[in-house]
Each structure stands twice: as C-alpha cells, then as structure tokens.
C-alpha cells in the first residue's frame, strides 16, 4: 500500500477540483447515516469554501427528471452553472463529466455525494485506479445506513482513497493565515456553517476589536 504522507500529499487549491454528485431529493429520502440537514449544511460549506479558493466545482445529478434537481442551496452558490445530468450510476463512466474535470488541468480530485456506498465509491475507486489523487469528503456524503457509509469508507481506503471532512479540506486549502486574501471568505464560511467553531470565531473577532480597559473593572 502506498502511504499518503509528506507536504506534497496535502491539498492545494491550485491543484484541486471538486465533484459534487447526486445531492438530490430521492437520495436524501433514504439517507440514514447522517442527519440530512447536516449533510446539506456540510455540502454547501464545501461548495462555498471551493468558491472562496477559486477551486472548480463540477455539479452532477443522475436522471434529475425522476430523482429531483440538486439541492438549491448548492446550485445557488454557482448561479447559472450547468448541472451535468447523467444516466450512469458511476460518474466516472460519464465521459462528459470526466472531460470537464480533465479540462481543469488539476489532479487532486475531491468527491462528495449521495450515496457513499454507490455514487461516491464507484467513481472514487475508478479514478484513483486511473492515477487521480482522490479524496472523499465523508461528512458531505452519506449512505442508506451507518454500516453502508462506513463499509464504503473502508472499501475506498483499501483502494488508496484519502478521507477528509469539509472543514479539514478548507483548512488545508488555507494552510497559512498569512494568506490574507482568503481569510474573510473563510471566516464567512465558518460563521455560516461551522456551528460552535463559527461562534468562537465571532467571539475572537469581538475580543480583538474590544479596547483593553485602562482601569481595573470592578
């Protein structure tokens, strides 16, 4: 097994491309590995983080006429962008999707989707076998059961796929707080989608902007 380690193994925004797969109503109705609202929140957070770092995001659905359109919370992040609708269950067998990904010139492929055991596992396993540096965002994905989600993760890890959560992805893209051009957007994503971490961030900003008392406070 080839271990993923060293600085070069970390995600870089200039080398990353995100594919969001089948975040649709049909799949959501039988999502049981996570709180559905959490998956929606986390997927939108990942989408906004990618936009903040100018990481291309490919949106794709499967037979949307039957399974429903992608969640509007996602498509609203990319107004006017085409959603590639497929018949293939395995996204990586759809040549249009693969061609769009290849056209970005990036090799760090980041995938999230519903369901983990089907529409995420198949393209991730195929892509890594074809030489792509593949990461799955586990908390922006989900399966029909906790077992299905976990077994899919185990299967992909055995194939060499990297596993991360959305906040870890954003942090890895940021990497250095001295990269101040992306800090405001990162802060907004934290406030909107990171729960207590976002509140703590607001508190930190409050403290930084609060004058130090010149006299003892009684």
Task: Describe this protein's structure.
The protein is α/β, with parallel strands linked by helices and 218 residues long. The chain has helices at 25-29, 36-52, 64-67, 72-75, 95-103, 116-129, 146-159, 166-174, 183-193, 196-208, and strands at 16-21, 57-62, 83-86, 108-113, 133-137, 162-164. A six-stranded parallel sheet has the order 3-2-1-4-5-6, with helices on both faces. α7 links the parallel β5 (133-137) and β6 (162-164). α2 packs antiparallel against α9 (183-193) and α6 packs parallel to α7 (146-159). The longest helix has 17 residues, at 36-52. The protein is globular, with a radius of gyration of 19 Å.
Can I get a quick summary?
With 218 residues, this protein is of the alpha/beta class. The chain has 10 helices and 6 strands.
The assigned structural class equals alpha/beta
| Amount of beta strand | 5-15%
Order of helices and strands: EHHEHHEHEHEHEHHH
* Number of strand segments: 6
Strand order of the largest sheet: 3-2-1-4-5-6
Distance between the termini: 63 Å
Number of helices: 10
Low-confidence stretches: none
Topology:
Blueprint: E1 16-21, H1 25-29, H2 36-52, E2 57-62, H3 64-67, H4 72-75, E3 83-86, H5 95-103, E4 108-113, H6 116-129, E5 133-137, H7 146-159, E6 162-164, H8 166-174, H9 183-193, H10 196-208
Parallel strand pairs: 1-2, 1-4, 2-3, 4-5, 5-6
Helix pairs in contact: 2-8, 2-9, 6-7, 9-10
List its salient traits.
218 residues; alpha/beta; globular
């Amino acid at each position: 097994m080839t271990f993923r380690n060293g600085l070069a193994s970390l995600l870089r925004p200039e080398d990353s491309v995100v594919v969001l797969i089948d975040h649709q109503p049909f799949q959501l109705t039988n999502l049981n590995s996570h709180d559905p609202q959490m998956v929606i929140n986390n997927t939108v957070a990942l989408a906004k983080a990618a936009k903040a770092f100018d990481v291309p995001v490919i949106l794709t659905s499967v037979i949307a006429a039957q399974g429903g359109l992608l969640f509007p919370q996602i498509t609203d992040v990319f107004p006017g962008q085409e959603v590639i609708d497929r018949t293939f269950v395995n996204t990586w067998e759809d040549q249009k999707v693969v061609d769009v990904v290849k056209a970005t010139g990036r090799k760090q492929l980041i995938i999230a989707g519903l369901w983990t055991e089907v529409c995420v596992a198949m393209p991730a396993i195929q892509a890594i076998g074809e030489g792509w540096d593949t990461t799955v965002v586990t908390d922006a994905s989900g399966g029909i059961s906790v077992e299905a989600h976990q077994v899919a993760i185990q299967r992909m890890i055995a194939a060499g796929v990297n596993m991360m959560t959305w906040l870890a992805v954003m942090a890895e893209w940021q990497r250095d707080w001295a990269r101040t051009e992306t800090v405001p957007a990162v802060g907004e994503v934290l406030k909107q989608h990171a729960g207590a971490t976002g509140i703590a961030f607001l508190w930190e900003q409050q403290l930084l902007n609060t004058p130090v008392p010149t006299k003892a406070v009684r």
